Amino acid sequence: MWTLAGRGCWHRRVLLPWATAAARPGLPRPLPIPSRTPAGSWASDRLCSSVGLKEKPDMSRFAVEDIRNFSIIAHVDHGKSTLADRLLELTGTIDKTKNNKQVLDKLQVERERGITVKAQTASLFYNFEGKEYLLNLIDTPGHVDFSYEVSRSLSACQGVLLVVDANEGIQAQTVANFFLAFEAQLSVIPVINKIDLKNADPERVEKQIEKVFDIPSDDCIKISAKLGTNVEYVLQAVIERIPPPKVHRRNPLRALVFDSTFDQYRGVIANVALFDGMVSRGDKIVSAHTQKTYEVNEVGVLNPSEQPTLKLYAGQVGYLIAGMKDVTEAQIGDTLYSHKHPVEPLPGFKSAKPMVFAGMYPIDQSEYNNLKSAIEKLTLNDSSVSVHRDSSLALGAGWRLGFLGLLHMEVFNQRLEQEYNTSVILTTPTVPYKAVLSSAKLIKEYREKEITIINPAQFPDKSKVAEYLEPVVLGTIITPDEYTGKIMALCQTRRAVQKHLMFIDQNRVMLKYLFPLNEIVVDFYDSLKSLSSGYASFDYEDAGYQTAELIKMDILLNGNIVEELVTVVHKDKAYAVGKTICERLKDSLPRQLFEIAIQAAIGSKIIARETVKAYRKNVLAKCYGGDITRKMKLLKRQTEGKKKLRKIGNIEVPKDTFIKVLKTQPNK
Ligand SMILES: Nc1nc2c(ncn2[C@@H]2O[C@H](COP(=O)(O)OP(=O)(O)OP(=O)(O)O)[C@@H](O)[C@H]2O)c(=O)[nH]1
Asked: Into which family does the record put it (predicted)?
């Protein structure tokens, strides 16, 4: 557990090395707003006008000391993407129009849900006090499930804008993201956003920032990203407080692949940060991971769309296309170097650690190959998903996928449907349990002492196991004090152990609890939000494993096991969870022509039961006589609807029933 005392005066060590005393006392201070000259001398106009660039820009004009690489980090909805919009406008990267809303959130799922799920890079060209700067901005997601995107993005940066909502103040992901930046030794610029809100209290938030992060309140910049108020001070602070990258242009090429996307025509587009040397079209480069050699077809910057350039130089962030076609060729964290000069690879990243696993199967096995190719392409765009082939008697051939959380799983599923037109069956998400084997013979058979169980169907029998282990996480909750009692009671029902309690101001409390991961993965966040009227926030980090008494529970419909709902539960929760799943299924299963028995079972012992009465739905019931085409249409729609059904025995279950049942499962 971290303590503030242990962090010491970190800001003096980490925040200040670049800033000179003259450069930064007491921001915001009067600033000569960078002027756009009549001749349109914004660097971006000359370099990369979004309309018709005739010549590829020469990036050598930006010396290393003219470059700033930074990320925007914050709690969900505190205004990262809106601030990014204003920065893009202010630097002339995009035209100022009313329609600039979350310009960098390009995915359909991001626009529909109003959240960022994928970090996005944009190179901004900015003329400040008569000097041209290249500012590489990375907008990151806020939700805990996507914090891997944040930590990867930070590897390409020297500083961050830590955005905090002036009304909500510091929230759980503010704390988590701050410490990611702190541990990466980046300069942190606190930005208090939404000062235009009626209930904004920037002074209170300043004090919280000082108390929790030990950052002097003078360092905070108070803005309204929505209205554009004071956003120019943010750019000034980026230039003055964030150091340029420490790189060497004369050394041989060393480029870090920190993200990648897949384009079906051009193959892999790798986002790279150049630590040494330079790279241009025609260069031969080698992947340190695969040792394969490629010829570079295109290099460029993201402005924010791809803008080819002549070369990329050390210190710059851009993209590179080199004919990588296979998903395994563009590993995130890989180092690319010149084939003439092998170099020591960069440290790369710790691989993402999946928190939940779920089975994924095509609804129809004839769709297997399509789904396989869709999963391969999407995992290239989202490398934090782990994929293992799997099969089940009932569901056929499929995969076991590992996700960083339930929202991540839903977003991945939605992207598969929207971007690749596929439809899948998902099974109950489960956390990665472990079983310590009980005998030398078994250890020899499994070739390991401990086995990790990512599929409840493979849960080993108690006779083989010395002890079961469950993953635990250290959760941070920030809440108005009035909800503390209720939240503590909720945590207790989730088998959590309190580790820390601290007032971050007069009426806000930060709680730290050690939670079994399976107690929070499905619905903890929803429960927390509803009992705190939406005011409490939650974030967690991995904290290893602990011993647990676990059992496997089956759910049956008329005697047939529903593979989607097989689950591993803690012994003390089995009855309650079984009963709840049966009740939820009863409420959400459509009635059919016959009675359905819903049962929860541990081995052969039935622990809960519900019944759905018989019923017949006649879609033509309201079509009295008349129009045959209308009847045909209704019948056609009914047939199409059936594609979304899954047959268990002779029972037809809508696909979304499973998700509904799981999402509303009170884990008491
Ligand atoms: N009143 C007001 N609203 C703002 C301001 N900045 C952002 N918002 C609103 O806050 C909401 C969230 O803004 P986003 O920019 O999407 O927040 P985000 O941090 O990028 O969100 P995630 O990517 O989901 O974490 C949107 O409705 C914005 O219009 C501001 O300065 N004032």
From this structure: Belongs to the TRAFAC class translation factor GTPase superfamily. Classic translation factor GTPase family. LepA subfamily.
